[in-house]
Design brief:
- With 147 residues, this protein is an alpha+beta fold.
- The chain has one domain (4-135): HIT family, subunit A, CATH 3.30.428.10.
- The protein contains four helices and five strands, in the order H-E-E-E-H-E-E-H-H.
- It has helices at residues 4-14, 57-78, 108-111, 128-144; strands at 20-24, 27-31, 41-45, 82-86, 97-102.
- Strand 1 (20-24) and strand 2 form a beta hairpin.
- The longest helix is centred in the middle third of the chain and has 22 residues, at 57-78.
- The chain is globular and about 40 Å long.
- The mean pLDDT is 97.
């Protein structure tokens, strides 16, 4: 059964996904649907697989390496304190990595909790006009790092 991840990867392949940032060897870097943590991105594998364990050793190394490099670039561009990486797959049972920048100025009640504690329903949604500069900068940073 195709998941949201399958649909988004197909849209990236077709070049029509508005949140597409950059193609990397393991898949696609996209901006998150909401930007309550500015710079929140995802890495979507191409081809889509069920989970990290579905990748062979070489594919895992590439996926995890590229995920960490996306984090490096986000750190450099946003001034985030750290990056949280999450691969859950419970709601969308297909591999995808959430890359959450975390900031010193986050609300005290949320600062030490997983990003899932934020109110996703009221969070600022992706805005192509507002987010395009950051997306271009992330793509440029990834290219500079050889991705």
């Amino acid at each position: 059964m195709p998941t949201l991840i399958h649909r988004r990867v197909k849209e990236c392949q077709q070049g029509v996904y508005p949140k597409l940032i950059h193609r990397v060897e393991s898949g696609w870097v996209v901006l998150g649907d909401v930007q309550f943590l500015p710079g929140y991105c995802l890495l979507l594998p191409d081809p889509v697989v069920a989970n990290l364990n579905s990748l062979d050793s070489a594919q895992r190394k590439v996926f995890l390496w590229e995920m960490s490099v996306v984090g490096d670039v986000i750190l450099e561009l946003t001034g985030a304190t750290r990056i949280n990486y999450e691969m859950i797959g419970n709601v969308e049972p297909a591999l995808h990595a959430h890359i959450f920048p975390r900031y010193e100025n986050e609300p005290a009640e949320l600062k030490l909790k997983p990003a899932w504690f934020y109110d996703w329903e009221t969070a600022r949604e992706f805005d192509e006009r507002e987010d395009s500069e950051l997306m271009r900068s992330i793509a440029t940073g990834l290219r500079a790092k050889g991705l």
